[in-house]
Design brief:
Blueprint (H helix, E strand, L loop, with lengths): L1 H18 L12 E6 L4 E5 L12 H11 L5 E6 L5 H8 L7 E4 L2 E3 L22 H11 L12 E7 L4 E5 L12 H12 L4 E8 L9 H10 L4 E6 L2 E7 H4 L15
Parallel strand pairs: 8-9
Antiparallel strand pairs: 1-2, 1-3, 3-5, 4-5, 6-7, 6-8, 9-10
Helix pairs in contact: 2-5
């Protein structure tokens, strides 16, 4: 157990560091989560708020959706910078692949095997260049990692940031539909959690609907987190269709009067 306590301490420190990346202009409540994988690598998540409060992405879902986007579910531990809420425990417990136990208020384990934390896993994709067709085809490939047991409607997304990073996102479903996250929100929240910069281009591929576009929830999040970005919608056999974020949601709700002073 002392060895486990030392690992928990390291992960708690990393979760606190993840919390510092939080986008919380409305509550000021920074929250972080890290997921330890079986090879010792660590995935990060943080709280990402939205002017439409119900679209806020919690640190746990942020980190977990990043796992799916990179095709990794070899989870050894989940640790937060604060205790799990009852709803977060229900969210974890409803996953049929895992049988969780909680050795402390902020730690969830699927079993008792804990590797030593080694390094932070960087969910970065290779640079495909400047051709939008390549960006769209990359998003199409990423869609293969989508977790859609209920809808069977996989969506892939790749976000390019002003710092030159390329980040994947997929839609991740959950038995509680209120906690489903879309591919666009997945990729954007990963960019926030890792401090990869602001999105300049967002490529979206609905591989079973060549005419698909971002849903209303994603449009609201895009316009807040990436207001100057160009959204490229994959058309499979045709060039992707570009639209500015402001065109996707004209007259969007900004929530300016809700923002905390100095944040």
């Amino acid at each position: 157990m002392p060895a486990h306590e030392a690992i928990f301490s390291v992960l708690a420190d990393l979760a606190a560091q993840s919390a510092d990346h939080s986008y919380v202009p409305y509550s000021g409540r920074k929250e972080g989560c890290v997921i330890l994988l079986e090879d010792g690598s660590v995935v990060h998540g943080c709280r990402v708020e939205n002017a439409s409060f119900q679209l806020t992405i919690g640190a746990l879902i942020n980190a977990w959706s990043t796992l799916h986007a990179i095709g990794r579910l070899d989870v050894a531990a989940v640790v937060q910078n604060r205790p799990f809420t009852p709803s977060e425990k229900v969210w974890l417990d409803q996953m049929p692949e895992f049988d969780w136990h909680y050795p402390s208020a902020a730690v969830a384990l699927p079993d008792d095997h804990l590797p030593e934390p080694s390094e932070s896993l960087q969910p970065i994709m290779e640079d495909w260049g400047t051709d939008p067709m390549d960006g769209a085809s990359t998003a199409r490939l990423v869609a293969e990692w989508a977790h859609t047991p209920q809808s069977d409607f996989p969506v892939g997304c790749v976000v390019k940031t002003d710092a030159g990073y390329h980040l994947p996102g997929v839609n991740v479903e959950h038995p509680d539909w209120a906690h489903i996250i879309c591919a666009e929100r997945n990729a954007l929240s990963t960019a926030v959690a890792y401090g990869y910069g602001s999105a300049t281009d967002i490529f979206v591929s609905c591989i079973k609907d060549p005419g698909g576009t971002p849903c209303g929830a994603c449009r609201q999040v895009i316009v807040e987190l990436a207001p100057e970005a160009t959204v490229w919608m994959d058309r499979i056999d045709q060039p992707p269709v570009p639209m500015k974020a402001s065109e996707l949601l004209p007259g969007s709700f900004t929530g300016q009067s809700l923002r905390r002073h100095g944040i």
